[in-house]
Amino acid sequence: MNRLVRMGIPILAAISLLGFGLGYWLFSDLPSVESLPRYLHAPSVHITDRQGRLLYEMIPPEGGRYLFVPLEKIPRSLQQATIATEDQNFYRHPGVDFWGMARAVWINLREGAMVAGGSTITQQVARNLLLEEAERGERSLRRKLREAFLAWQLTRRFRKDDILEMYLNQTYYGGMAYGVEAAAQTFFGKSVDQLDLAEAALLAGLPQAPARYNPYTDVQAAKRRQEVVLGLMEEAGYITAEQRRLAQAEKLVLAEAPYPIEAPHFVMMVRNAVDALFTSEQILSAGGLIVRTTLDLDWQHQAEAAVRDQLLRLQQHTLGISHNVNNAALVAIDVHRGEILALVGSADYFDASISGAINMALAPRQPGSALKPLIYAAALDPQFPGGPWTAATMILDVRTAFLTGEGKAYLPENYDRQEHGPVLVRQALASSLNIPAVIALEHIGLETLVNLTSRLGITTLKDPYRYDLSLALGGGEVRLLELTAAYGAFANGGYRLTPHLILEITNAEGEVLYRTEPVPQVRVLDARVAWLISDILKDDEARRLGFGEHSVLNLGRPAAVKTGTTSNFHDNWTIGYTPHLVVGVWSGNSDYQPMWEINGLTGAAPIWHQFMRAVLSGAPEDDFTRPEDLVQVEVCALSGLLPSEACVFRRWEWFIPGTQPVEQDRFYHWVDVDTRTGTLASAQTPPQYRARRLALDLPPQAHAWARAQNWLLIQDLVAAPSYEALPAEGLWLVSPAPGSRFLFDARVHASSQRILLEASAVTRLQQVSFWVDGEMVGVVTASPYRLWWQLQPGEHQIWAEALTVQGDHLKSDTVNIVVDVAG
């Protein structure tokens, strides 16, 4: 016995040593199951629209798409499909299932392929989350034993439901999708809780061979795998034969794109906002984020369709010549909450030929006439120190020279190149007349305008001394998003509108981590001024002069709108609003190529119109709420003053109390004319030669316009001689001025170097001919009598000759000018 003991001790020692060595070899470097959270996949960030529809998923730099979903939110059918396929005895074994391994071998032999796994769900969790990546792919006894040991430890540490939850959230399903939520979004474009039995069965079959069964690469292989899973579910008693048959017959409908992105420019703006709010560590600890944005995906699709449709219409001109308009952007904002409801940054984010990745909603561009409402708003402010204008303030829309800060003459022209004489602010703004807008800016001053734009949220116009009066016609750059928000202050009664993108951000458990709080209201406009601007911009009659009747700006419901076109045809704008929604549109080319025969009315406005009609269909036709502190007064439509007996054109206008006119109109006069001389009748004029006529008494700057419109002027009645003795001095050159010197630059194309020849007379003319150095250079048969002459170096003599309606010949004085050659 002693001998046996003596022999056994070394053997036991050897066995112990061998066991210790084997244990050390197997388990010494095994990770602790307590460290499991460190091995979870980095969660992705889901960006959704306001109704929870996915816009984009921000995938972590390392790994794939992932978002944790609690087990109770995962369909029971997907849980059962996974258990039937991977581990039928999952709830009955301690982490390792020897009977299950035997069963898997039998099923695989029967099917002639690897259709059922030998490892339990718990073993797979242990392998995928705890073992090093290099060891996971090993086919060795050591790896299997280590895996089994970790599975046993996991079963002791976690509940079965917890382990199943880990598996469903961490397993790789192919297509860069980790977990069932990412897989559901990748393959079906929906959340996991919306999957039906057929879709659940397809997903449950993917982990065995994600590449082989990927439905995007081999839909038939995916369907065959799905049928196998459904068969295993029936065999396990989870579904009936009829349920299996119906699921197998269901047509497989995959997501259009495995990695969809909606509203890409908006999404990129949201990504930047999320990066500013959360660090990567905070996102990881939250288990992923769900960012619910302000965007309405249905409205976004309508905006994209409006942009697409209009650009398609503009691709070909009726003459077969392209308008050269390749891009557009749109912004829609709730005027009370500042929520961005739709944002199209370009016609196609992925089209490099149009620089589609540039967000034109944020790119500074010249706004053309779209700044005019802000100019007039400043002029209408009852607190304006220079005395406020009103909607009935008269402005002379005639050729006017302004002096720039550099001492040069600035001569703005209207878009139609016509003069319209005396106009009221209502008509000047609604019809977007250029000359009155420059006069209005000169009245308020550049500093006042820049201060107002800053208070309204426009950040690009900072230093008023950088600009001149051309700013009234778009001489500075603004962002579509900011200018659209500025218009929102007109719609909401004068409060600054601050746009925002995000409603709330939650973690994987639904806990709110961030919520956009309402911005305190800051008044930037008098409510009465805001309403007056809106009332003007919605006035279809007032804009008839500039846009015609029933233009595309008319929605058939109360809506205020303004267009803008830059003088170089680089940019078209339309910004308009209702009492609840403001929408801004830009169209043009990102690379500043000029458009051809396109303006704000024909370029951007159709996009605005189509979108507004689409999203407002069925909505109440609310009008802008008029403040109580306004009064309505009848005025003379030409002067804006109280109507006199002679005033034949009148209209009703709204005023802020204290600004309404108190003087009578002085433009219209009933006069008696001597029909023999065409002058005012005197006491000696016989009754048979007296005629009652309506005449105008206008400022001198408007005389040429009035004569061109065949208006009878008081000044002409007083000063006009009889037609029988009309002198030659009755015709004179308005331009060029005597003794003028001009510079001819040979480096500039000759056609771009011209001067204006203009003549005027005290009587009506049939035609005017212009002469230079004894040669006639052109004939004009209608007022205004103007002609552009191409410069030629040297000294020149210029005059005009005319034929009156009575057949008399007139000749102006000769004007001498000099054209020097640039050195």
Average predicted confidence as pLDDT: 84
What class would the helix/strand composition place it in?
A: alpha+beta
Proportion of residues in helical segments: 25-40%
Spans of at least 5 consecutive residues whose pLDDT stays below 50 are 719-728
Number of helices: 24
Percentage of residues in DSSP E strands? 15-25%
Polypeptide structure, described:
The protein is α+β, with helices and mostly antiparallel strands. The chain is built from 24 helices and 30 strands. The strands form nine sheets. Strands 23, 25, 26, 28, 29 and 30 form a six-stranded mixed β-sheet that branches. Strands 2-1-5-12-13 form a five-stranded mixed β-sheet, covered by helices on one side. A hairpin with a 4-residue loop joins strand 12 (502-507) and strand 13. Helix 4 (121-130) crosses helix 6, helix 9 crosses helix 10 and helix 14 packs antiparallel against helix 22 (605-615). The longest helix has 26 residues, at 2-27. Mean pLDDT is 84; it is low at 719-728.
List keywords for this structure.
single chain, 823 residues, alpha+beta, 6-stranded mixed sheet, elongated
Write the layout of secondary structure elements.
Elements: H1 2-27, E1 45-48, E2 54-58, E3 65-66, H2 76-86, H3 98-111, H4 121-130, H5 133-136, H6 141-157, H7 160-170, E4 177-178, H8 180-188, H9 197-204, H10 219-235, H11 241-249, H12 264-277, H13 280-285, E5 289-293, H14 297-314, E6 327-334, E7 340-344, H15 372-380, E8 394-397, E9 402-403, E10 409-410, E11 421-424, H16 425-430, H17 434-444, H18 446-455, H19 480-491, E12 502-507, E13 512-515, H20 527-537, H21 544-547, E14 560-565, E15 571-577, E16 581-588, H22 605-615, E17 631-636, E18 650-655, E19 668-674, E20 679-680, E21 690-696, H23 703-708, H24 714-719, E22 731-735, E23 741-744, E24 754-761, E25 765-772, E26 775-780, E27 785-790, E28 794-804, E29 809-811, E30 815-821
Parallel strand pairs: 1-5, 3-4, 23-30
Antiparallel strand pairs: 1-2, 5-12, 6-7, 6-16, 8-11, 9-10, 12-13, 14-15, 15-16, 17-18, 19-20, 19-21, 22-24, 24-27, 25-26, 25-28, 28-29, 28-30
